[in-house]
Every structure is written in C-alpha cells, then in structure tokens.
Specification:
single chain, 6 strands, 6-stranded mixed beta sheet
Length: about 150
C-alpha cells in the first residue's frame, strides 16, 4: 500500500479560505500546480470539474476526496485543504458540510497506484477523533504530522 508521506508534503496542506466547493477545489488545484510543474492548471481544473459532475467526491463524515488521473502528470500527488466552517455546498453523500478535502492526482497510466492511494486516504481518515483533531488545529504542519502519523499505523 502506498504511503501518504511519498505523495503529501507539508507545503501541500492548507487551511482553506474558500466557503464554496468550487473555490475550495480551486485553492487545492493552485497548490498542486505550484508544486508540480508537470501539471497544467486548466487541464487539472477541467478534469476535476468533470469528475465532480459525474458524482460528488464528498464521501461523508466531513470528508471529500476529489481525484483524477491525468495524461500530463509525471507522478502521483496529494494536496489537503481544511475548512473549519465546512463547505456547505459540497453535496456530500451524507448532506453534511465538508471540512477535509484530500485531492489526489495520478498519472493516467498508474491505475493501481491511483486506486491504492484512494483506499489509503479513506482508511487513514476513517477515525472520527483524528478528523476532529485535524479540523480543530490552526497549524498546517500539525495537520500534516497527524496524517503522516496515522498513515504509519
């Protein structure tokens, strides 16, 4: 199983300023494009929008995992955004606001890694107390450390 540490850097963890789904996704897209020169912002934005149009990636329990595979991506990458207030218009499966958004981008040819990363993120974030701790902190480094520490278990 892939480890989050391989794909999630502390610089890719942010506290979201956004109050809407589209703005939150745009913030995370900006983070990934800034850190991954192989990613084209417009292409990533278009593909994330297509994925969300198929079905919301808000999976419940205040968590969303938007994810895409891109032809131009050189390696998998993850960005995490946290919203204390929650994103009410995310259209989560449980109809609750989303507070933790984990965006995953993988190269088009790496289906196995892509699926394993999705499963790993869902597994790491299944613990309610850990999600509460992530939402409660104002420090992105602490959020990163919580995620990486939980992933090591």
């Amino acid at each position: 199983m892939p480890e989050l540490l391989e794909y999630l850097t502390a610089a890719r963890v942010i506290l979201l300023d956004a109050t809407t789904k589209d703005a939150a996704l745009a913030e995370l897209i900006d983070v990934l494009v800034r850190d991954e020169p192989s990613l084209d912002r417009q292409t990533l934005s278009d593909e994330i929008a297509k994925r969300e149009a198929m079905m919301s990636t808000g999976i419940g329990n205040r968590l969303a995992i938007p994810h895409v595979r891109l032809t131009g991506a050189k390696s998998p990458a993850i960005a995490v955004g946290v919203s204390k207030a929650g994103i009410a218009d995310y259209e989560s499966l449980d109809q609750q606001p989303v507070s933790i958004i984990v965006m995953i981008v993988a190269p088009a040819g790496e289906h196995d890694t892509y699926i394993r990363l999705l499963a790993r993120v869902a597994d790491v974030l299944k613990d309610q107390e850990m999600r509460d701790a992530i939402i409660a902190t104002d420090d992105t480094r602490t959020i990163h450390d919580i995620l990486i520490g939980q992933d090591a278990k």
